[in-house]
Specification:
alpha/beta, eight-stranded mixed sheet, eight-stranded parallel sheet, 13 helices, 24% strand
């Protein structure tokens, strides 16, 4: 999709890493051409009147399990990094190449190469060939690589190729078969559970391997107080680690599972209230680098089951932006930090020239009415599955215009 006509977005509040300021943004040839209060449309430009709304970078959603264009466009997502856990794992260059082309022109899908063949954690896949086919990072998938030798070789190889390793930090020897976090709630409900320390154990080993190899390692979801402490300490001594989280683990605790509603059956499972508060502190102090949707839609055949038998996962693309804007209203973070978590840092980890409103960057822009109220209704969602833990919850923040590569997308 090539931009045929320059486009100027006028009269908005531009969200940049340095703050939010009134102004206009001009897009030409698929790139951001000009930014500022003195930018005006030129002859022949198409014009979008932002009317005081936010002019923000398109969201770069790091680590989704399915591609749902209507849901992504609704949520302001212009790029999505697809996890390798597909019906055919992304462990061959041909599969990676196919996925890399699948969303264009109005959504760029960045495939994450499977770290090991068939995601079995035993033998490294052809990572260099998959990088050449379009993989933007390498991921362990839904599971942890238990073999430390394999994980070390992965980190060394990824460091040589300058690829980020996206890891799932849970020790499977402790979590297999678990549906909840061990504690009072799981005991009362009689659910099979695993200790929260399974996360810190996995993190401790992988942080050591990251330090040994010099690799860039991103832990896709860190959700416990002990986990945040481990990441915080590693960063302090210069280890190249980052971590992410989903809105569910920031806004919900294991109390949300008390009615056995399977839409709250997630991976990792919801944590204690103390861990949830630690997660909010970790967002505020910069320990958490990315907030992703964790988009993993599940149909009724996966969710209309007893809680322990249901598949974990949630449809998160449509609610991601609104939930993060809620953190801004709570004064936990400001708007610049919000879009650093949603766009700038994910783009940097993937090595794509997007995620920031800056001259010369890709023209991926969302015009957002941050105060627009709406009610999350799973029956009206555009995702292939409607399993949101936020069903019937009030929210604020709607995307009014979405631009990919300088071209408006119909919403």
């Amino acid at each position: 999709m090539k931009q045929m006509q320059p486009l100027t977005i006028t009269g908005g509040q531009i969200v940049t890493p340095s703050g939010v300021a009134p102004g206009s943004v001009r897009l030409a040839d698929g790139l951001i051409a000009a930014i500022g209060a003195d930018v005006a449309p030129q002859d022949g430009d198409a014009v979008i009147e932002a009317r005081g709304m936010l002019i923000a970078p398109g969201i770069v959603d790091l680590g989704v399990f399915a591609i749902d264009k209507p849901a992504f466009h609704f949520g302001g997502i212009t790029r999505a990094a697809l996890m390798p856990d597909q019906s055919l794992p992304l462990d061959y260059p041909s599969r990676v190449a196919h996925v890399a082309k699948s969303g264009k022109p109005d959504l760029w899908v960045h495939p994450l190469a499977a770290a090991t063949r068939s995601l079995e954690g035993a033998e490294l896949a052809e990572i260099a060939l998959m990088r050449d086919a379009g993989a933007r990072a390498v991921a362990t998938g839904r599971s942890w690589i238990a073999d430390s030798g394999v994980m070390l070789r992965l980190c060394q190889y990824a460091a040589m190729l300058d690829l980020t390793v996206i890891a799932h930090p849970e020790d499977a020897a402790l979590t297999t078969g678990a549906a909840a976090t061990a504690g009072e709630i799981a005991t009362r409900l009689g659910l099979p559970s695993a200790p929260a320390e399974a996360e810190a154990l996995a993190l401790a080993r992988d942080i050591v391997l990251a330090e040994m190899s010099g690799a860039r390692v991103h832990f896709r979801q860190v959700t416990t107080a002990a986990g945040f402490a481990a990441v915080r300490a590693a960063k302090a001594r210069g280890v190249r680690v980052t971590c992410g989280i989903t809105p569910a683990h920031l806004l919900l605790s294991d109390l949300a599972t008390a009615d056995f509603r399977t839409f709250t059956r997630l991976s990792p499972p919801l944590r204690s209230e103390a861990d949830r508060q630690a997660a909010r502190d970790a967002v505020a102090d910069g320990t958490i680098d990315v907030i992703g949707s964790g988009h993993d839609p599940r149909g009724p055949e996966d969710k209309r089951l007893p809680f322990a038998d249901a598949e974990p996962g949630m449809a998160g693309a449509e609610t991601l932006l609104a939930m993060v804007l809620g953190l801004v209203r709570d004064e936990l973070i400001d708007l610049s930090r919000a879009f650093d978590l949603l766009s700038a840092t994910p783009a940097a980890l993937l090595g794509v020239d997007a995620g920031v409103i800056e001259v010369g960057r890709e023209a991926d822009i969302a015009v957002v009415d941050a105060d627009a109220p709406w009610v999350i209704n799973r029956t009206k969602m555009g995702a292939t599955g409607d399993n949101t833990p936020f069903d019937r919850q009030g929210a604020q923040g709607r995307v009014r215009n979405l631009i990919k590569g300088g071209v408006p997308i119909a919403l």
